[in-house]
């Protein structure tokens, strides 16, 4: 299927979804909730990595002059609920949790969720995601009752132009960004400075480690791998990961921990088919997010495809190698040098050769990249891993 035909099919499907979801929206009765100007609703329903780049700003909102005495409600993605409840719940008065899978697949769940959202009123409602999703956070915002609705002047990463023209009308204020806010952490900083009217003194995402026993202390010293990813274009070849593992085991005699969720089991199984070293320990689907934070903090090195776990590793200041085909270059990876100097992102050679021209790379790959992640050579990753591990 050609790119033009594929885009036409996607356009048709998205328009059909719009009509279908509009019928659901119209079936939800209009609510007249009690007015509460002394409250703010934050909508943040993206994935784990997005939350890691966002979460530190909740404290600045809570402590600001404008919001310290206001009710703060967070509408979040249940995927990172455990991190929020353990580390960040003191900065928020109330939390609402969305099951994104159910919201997209169950009509009853979607209708009930939107109906419940419409029963409350907030002085302000803020969509905290830069790339607004027309059928997700934008749809939720359309049913929110608020005096002032705020969002970003979104890009087209997750929306068509016609969708953006419609959803812009859901908001009273739209925040513009520029090149200086290309990295998502800086977009979040811009948002919270806009909301509070104060300068936010946060320089980088960070996770404060709560004293707890490392469940895998018996395997130290170890290197951790995350070899999965939702999209195939983000997954470096399992055989290449195995070659890297062999180098680390042969030279440093470290254990190798495989991390991941249930969706990553198949990749771990493929890895174990070609690498039966007793040094390899498969903990895919066997760790909680809170345990992973501690595991990554204590790792000698973490090597990962573009993932939420990579952002956690960066936030606990561990040595990290991220492998990426370049999609959304500059927004999530690579991390700016002022944030970390003990981590790196390795891209296909065509990007590596032009790293001294980030404006060009951001312009070309800010939405997506068709480059093959498997063009990243094993030797390149081995050399970087050796550099990190030898520099204790």
What does this protein look like?
It is a single chain. The protein has 392 residues and is of the alpha/beta class. It folds into 2 domains: 27-196, Glycogen Phosphorylase B (Rossmann fold), CATH 3.40.50; 217-390, 3-Layer(aba) Sandwich (Rossmann fold). Helices cover 40% and strands 16% of the residues. It has helices at residues 3-27, 48-52, 57-63, 81-87, 100-105, 107-117, 137-143, 161-167, 184-196, 238-252, 265-274, 289-297, 308-315, 349-352, 358-365, 378-390, and strands spanning 39-44, 71-77, 94-98, 121-127, 145-152, 173-175, 222-226, 255-258, 280-282, 301-305, 320-323, 343-346. The strands form 2 sheets. A 6-stranded parallel sheet has the order 3-2-1-4-5-6. The longest helix is centred in the first third of the chain and has 25 residues, at 3-27. The protein is globular, with a radius of gyration of 22 Å. It starts with a helix and ends with a helix.
């Amino acid at each position: 299927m050609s790119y033009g035909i594929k885009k036409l099919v996607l356009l048709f499907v998205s328009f059909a979804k719009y009509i279908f979801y509009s019928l659901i929206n119209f079936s939800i009765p209009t609510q007249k909730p009690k007015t509460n100007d002394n409250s703010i609703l934050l909508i943040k329903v993206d994935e784990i990595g997005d939350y890691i780049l966002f979460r530190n700003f909740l404290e600045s909102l809570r402590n600001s002059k404008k919001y310290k005495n206001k009710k703060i409600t967070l509408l979040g993605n249940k995927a990172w609920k455990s991190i929020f409840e353990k580390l960040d719940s003191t900065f928020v008065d109330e939390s609402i949790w969305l099951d994104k899978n159910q919201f997209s697949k169950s009509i009853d769940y979607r209708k009930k969720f939107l109906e419940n959202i419409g029963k409350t009123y907030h002085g302000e409602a803020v969509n905290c995601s830069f790339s607004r999703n027309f059928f997700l956070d934008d749809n939720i915002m359309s049913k929110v009752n608020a005096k002032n609705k705020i969002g970003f002047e979104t890009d087209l990463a997750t929306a068509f132009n016609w969708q953006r023209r419609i959803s812009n009308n859901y908001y009273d204020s739209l925040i513009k960004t520029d090149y200086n806010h290309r990295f998502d952490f800086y977009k979040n900083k811009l948002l919270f400075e806009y909301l509070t009217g104060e300068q936010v003194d946060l320089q980088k995402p960070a996770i404060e480690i709560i004293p707890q026993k490392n469940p895998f202390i018996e395997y130290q010293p170890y290197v951790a791998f995350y070899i999965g990813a939702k999209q195939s274009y983000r997954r470096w070849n399992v055989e290449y990961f195995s070659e890297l593992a062999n180098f680390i085991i042969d030279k440093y005699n470290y254990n190798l921990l495989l991390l991941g969720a249930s969706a990553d089991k198949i990749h771990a199984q493929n890895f174990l088919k070609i690498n039966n070293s007793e040094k390899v320990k498969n903990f895919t689907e066997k760790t909680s997010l809170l345990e992973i934070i501690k595991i990554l903090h204590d790792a000698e090195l973490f090597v990962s495809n573009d993932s939420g776990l990579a952002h956690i590793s960066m936030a606990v200041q561990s040595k990290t190698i991220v492998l990426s085909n370049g999609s959304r270059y500059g927004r999530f990876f690579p991390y700016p040098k002022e944030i970390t100097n003990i981590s790196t992102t390795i891209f296909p050679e065509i990007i590596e050769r032009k790293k001294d021209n980030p404006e060009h790379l951001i312009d070309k790959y800010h939405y997506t990249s068709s480059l093959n992640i498997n063009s990243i050579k094993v030797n390149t990753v081995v050399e970087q891993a050796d550099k990190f591990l030898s520099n204790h």
